[in-house]
Amino acid sequence: MLRNQIDKIRLLFHKDRGSYLCFYEILGFFPRNIQIYQQALLHKSISIRSEKGRPLNNERLEFLGDAILDAIVGDIVYKHFEGRREGFLTNTRSKIVQRETLNKLAVEIGLDKLVKYSSRSSSHNSYMYGNAFEAFVGAIYLDQGYDRCKWFMEEKIFKHYIDLDKMSRKEVNFKSKLIEWSQKNKMEVSFELIKQLLDKDYNPMFHTEIRIEGVSAGTGTGYSKKESQQNAAQIALRKIKGDETFKTEIQAAKNQRHTEEIIAEGIAAQDTAITERLSETDSHPASLDN
């Protein structure tokens, strides 16, 4: 409280007080290093560089904010749902930190009006605001630490925009989302039941592996095949989002499959042509001279 009053007095003499007040309305406190928050709202399509020539955008802050959000939301969910199973807690946290939810939160608090991006970029139609929300949390962490991040999420986000009990009952079909992504990107996806086992109470459990273009994308365990598929699909979607090496690997596998299909189609076409010629020869035998 005292710190905020001191920051407020300093603000009266600051040339950029308009930006400070704008962030105060969102945060509930004054930034100490406003440049970090401004960078959190710079999409990579802007192509701004620092004095040293390095790109200035929010991607690194997004990476940091993603990790901080997972920890804070996990903490909040764990304490709210006392005694619930790990799978339930994981699913509830995932519903909160998924891109659709973060996009909506960014719009609710007004971040969407502050994000800077190139009009040529089409990414603002998908998850740009949710990514900016993560970057914004990363900025809070760097500027004022974990406890302030947690206060922001509890007092400015959960209290106003997230009903935990309602959110926990919301159905999120990760398998459908993965299939939708695969169809959009023309990727082959398979769900393989690789193991059945019993837990310590002798309840049957299922272990599913998802392969994208033949490459392992994630495994999931559940008390039904459906639950194991959903858990595996959730892991696969995270991998698609954040693992560049994995994305390169499945793209290479897709390209290889496409090449093999073209070759196979060519061979099949040649075989068909040869067969047709032989049929024509058989139906019109050459006449023999007497």
UniProtKB/TrEMBL annotation:
GO terms for cellular component: cytoplasm. Its EC number is 3.1.26.3. It comes from the Bacteria. Gene3D superfamilies: 3.30.160.20, Ribonuclease III domain. One of its GO terms (biological process) is mRNA processing. Digests double-stranded RNA. Involved in the processing of primary rRNA transcript to yield the immediate precursors to the large and small rRNAs (23S and 16S). Processes some mRNAs, and tRNAs when they are encoded in the rRNA operon. Processes pre-crRNA and tracrRNA of type II CRISPR loci if present in the organism. Homodimer. Belongs to the ribonuclease III family. This is Ribonuclease 3.
